[in-house]
Predict the 3D structure of the following.
Amino acid sequence: MVGSTTLDAAAPNVVAELADDLSGLDVLAALDGLAGEDLHGMTGGQVLDRTALLVAVQNRVAAELTRTVRHAAVSQAAERDGLRSMRSWLIGHVRVSAGEADRIVRAGRVLESFPVLAAGFAAGEVSAAQVNVVADKVGDREVARAAEQGIDLGAFDVDWARVAAESPHASMVAAVQAFDAALDPDGPEPDPTEGRRLTIVTHADGSITARFDADAVGGEKFKAVIESHVQADRPKGDTRTRPQQQGDALVQVCDNQLAAGNLPTLRTVKPHVVVGVDLEDLVDDATGAGAAELGFGATISAARARYLACDGSISRIVMGPDGVPLDLGRDHRVVTPGLRKAVERRDKSCVFTGCGAPTWWCDVHHLIHWLHGGETSLTNSALLCERHHTKVHHGFRVERQPDGQWRTWRPDGSEILIGPLLS
């Protein structure tokens, strides 16, 4: 059991003891010992040693899982539970994601051709992610082609194991690309579409996770578009992380395309964001969690629906007691194209203090919401980018002064000021 908190001096013994536990399949007891240690009593060096140890152990466990799954696949062990493949068994019986199941099965298959890399994996020197760099590029077809061309897989095996153990993760990617070059010195035909994939996973709350793979040229175009929006939207005091900035930029690109009105027709109409919400929830000031439904099925709060209704089209649908629509009113555009042009000409950019996002990033916000009797007029309108439009629907306030200047207040009533404070 591991119970010492003087890890600097005892680290080799801890490694040996944990290795003995692992070899004796006493993994849970070893983890219980680690979980019982007081991290607050350790020095910085001890915590770092402990972290390195756990990474090595994680690699060894991943290697053993990969080896076990490969044996189970070859021996068709999943048939015992009525399943055809270990991929299906991992997904259904131990709740592994489909992507992770694919990676484990693929890694086990490819490691049979690269025993030195497999040994480094088993020793904890190589990570599952590094093995997957190889597995993503090298399959049965590539191994067969290498044999046909007389390419020595053993040389690549030794090189990859060394790079994985001694170099940054990015170096492994470059090392595997060298195998591609050896397999096909002339390079692949320039068909960029084969390297492009976009996978979108929708979660229970309506949020999404996406993975985008692109060829070098497509990736360059994507990065150029995203970076242009990131660099154009850097307000004073911005505390967003780089991933958050890029995420906002991607949504802004979508906003711009939807607003331009030149996207292909979707389901007989121009693509747009559809929100269904009961009138009672729409006019109520309460947040109303889960009160509105989006066109693709996600649910949002009534407060978020009111935000979207600030600059959109409203359609009235009268529903019967059995849920059947009885009457459909005409579309009513809250902010007309003419009014928007006038607001853009007057405000020229987002009016939230410190922002200045361009007009094509902005919505027309009702200073007094039309739900509460506010007029859809130039004097009751303000141009706000998505982020700051959200802010003013959550306690912030913008106000236009008689001299035409805009001022912004925080929810606590203090004003956001730019520049040095005057005494």
Summary: Residues 190 and 215 are 10 Å apart (CA to CA). Residues 44-74 form the longest helix (31 residues). Confidence is low (pLDDT under 50) at residues 1-15.
